[in-house]
Amino acid sequence: MNIKAKKKFGQNFLKDKSIVEEIIKAIPNSNHKLIEIGPGLGDLTEHLLKSQDVVAFEIDLDLCKYLNDKFSEEIESGKLQLICGDVLEFWSSGKLMEDDYKIVANLPYYIATNIILKALQDSSCNSITVMIQKEVADKFLADVGEREFSSLSVIAQSLGDVRHIVEAPPSAFDPPPKVVSSVIEFKKLHESLSSEFLDFLRSAFQQPRKTLMKNLSQKYSREYLEKIFEQLDLTQSIRPHQVDKMDYHQIYEMLEDLKIGRERGVTKT
Ligand code: SAM
Predict the structure, then answer these.
(1) In a designed cystine with 39, which of 50, 56, 97, 199 is the match (CB 3.0 to 4.6 A)?
(2) pTM score > 0.90 for this model?
(3) 37 CA distance to ligand 1 centroid (A)?
(4) In sequence order, what are the beta bridge partners of 80?
């Protein structure tokens, strides 16, 4: 069967076997269900099936037919469950499945951040080992003070540990993508963050190069923010990437405690 990579589904098939091995080595050794998102031509799937059962979600119906053929025995025996469709649609209720699970994937880059955020917020998800665009991986991994430190860093590092596994040049894929890729691993230690805290972070990093005070005062009372900044010893000129994870949680909790309204000015009573 002649399969041509489809750009619209972010298909860049991983051909470098040493990187496939690095991914396999990085997967936490737990009994949780193993989910692969976007098995593609099944190269990674084949390795995964050597040691465990796999549930795989694939959107491309041509690839689904190909995989059904390639893994007919494993599907028959129940080792592989192949689900054809958009993985995001199966997530609509906030959980991808009831059982605890871990994700392994070479993710389609056009929805990689979305998938990771959904998995991080899914209480059934225990770990995520994924290949993504390096530029996005650097945001999840960044330390406070680094230019890349962003709301993604705060979210991921608030929910658990994030580590870098390996980098992959474009030549590791067929067809080669335009960008360098990285494999990263998230180990979840906490279930999820509230949607109000996520909204707060969105405001904090709205304009990353402006001051945190300017960004937050678009939404929260400046008077209260000034008090909170003073208590936490944060200068008014501090930028969003210079404030650490714990301070973000503190600012948010102090705003909550003060019952500050969500719209600018509402709370100045
Ligand atoms: N795992 C294969 C590999 O490493 O060679 C393929 C990786 S390729 C970067 C991304 C895969 O995700 C493709 O097979 C693509 O069809 C699939 N995909 C894209 N969007 C998807 C979605 N919304 N739900 C499920 N699979 C998707």
Answers:
(1) 56
(2) yes
(3) 6
(4) 54
